[in-house]
Amino acid sequence: MKSTILSTVLLAAGGVLAQHNASTSNGCSDGYFPGTDTVIYSVPYTYAQVMSIIGSYKNLTWSGNPDNTVTLNGTDNTVGTARTYDVGGAHVIETITVYEKPAMGPYVEVHTLAPLTIAAANVSFYGDFDGTTVTSICGGAASTFNLTIDFCATNATLAASVLHMIHLADASTVGVFLGGQNFSSCAAMGNSSTSTSGSGSSSTMSTSAPAVGFTGGASMLGASALLAGGAALAAIVW
User: Fold this and answer.
1) Which CA distances in Å does 88 have to 41, 91, 160?
2) Quick one: which of 12, 33, 45, 204 could link to 156 by a disulfide (CB 3.0–4.6 Å)?
3) Mean per-residue pLDDT for 163-172?
4) How do residues 57-96 score in pLDDT, each as one tens digit?
5) pLDDT tens per residue across span 101-157
């Protein structure tokens, strides 16, 4: 069953990721190898609308965690605060290292990720940088996510594909929560501006409709969810 899950996830991510295991002299703990992954995803909703969904570090409903399943050891949205939750058999601890949420953006949230194991995929990983930025584009009519993680994993290629799937699901679920409309271009929205002043974000990215079953990244950590997510990932157009 495990081999089937791993094959499905890797096949779905084939051609998208080029993560490869490196030598042991890589800055990672013994048995772990370095990797990185980035998801860039745009939604046709304003920065303020996006913040209404993701603007609390404790609220992870958009990532598949029900209300009140996330515990904080400090003040919400504050550097040094860790959130803890259990999902899909994994115990997750994430500690804020950078948090900026100005009224007009951009939003910047970076946290560390304590070591965890996803048994369904037979992979363990941890990260010192797991960051999310949200920037206004199209004169403020739309927003672009950048979700980037630098990690160490027992299998860097597999971890990158799983993390890519999770982060893509997170970003697409925010769009679903806000109405499920697709972003294709600023021009299609009747706005010729590619970004708000100083944002520097491209508006040329096009996305397909979020695949059925994308209910947040955290909800994809189980075996059946990884299988479904592999198929959903294959349906996304980068």
Assistant:
1) 25, 9, 18
2) 33
3) 95
4) 999 999 988 878 999 999 999 999 999 999 878 999 999 9
5) 999 999 999 999 999 999 888 999 999 999 999 999 999 999 999 999 999 999 999
- Residue type at 26? N
Q: Look at strands 107-118 and 90-100 and give their pairing.
A: antiparallel
| Six-digit token string for 66 | 């029900």
Q: How confident is the model at residue 215 (pLDDT cuts 50, 70, 90)?
A: low
Say which residues have a Cβ less than 8 Å from residue 22's Cβ, sequence separation at least 6. Answer: 33, 34, 156
Q: Which residue has the tokens 């939604």?
A: 43
Task: Name the one residue in this structure whose structure tokens are 């584009």.
Answer: 137
**Interatomic CA distance for residues 218 and 60, integer angstroms:** 9
Print the SS3 string covering the chain.
CHHHHHHHHHHHCCCCCCCCCCCCCCCCCCCCEEEEEEEEEEECCCHHHHHHHHCCCCCCHHHCCCCCCCEECCCCCCCCCEEEEEECCEEEEEEEEEEECCCCCCEEEEEEEEEEEEHHHCEEEEEEEEEEEEEEEHHHCEEEEEEEEEEEECCHHHHHHHHHHHHHHHHHHHHHHCCCCCCCCCHHHCCCCCCCCCCCCCCCCCCCCCCCCCCCHHHHCCHHHHHHHHHHHHCCCC
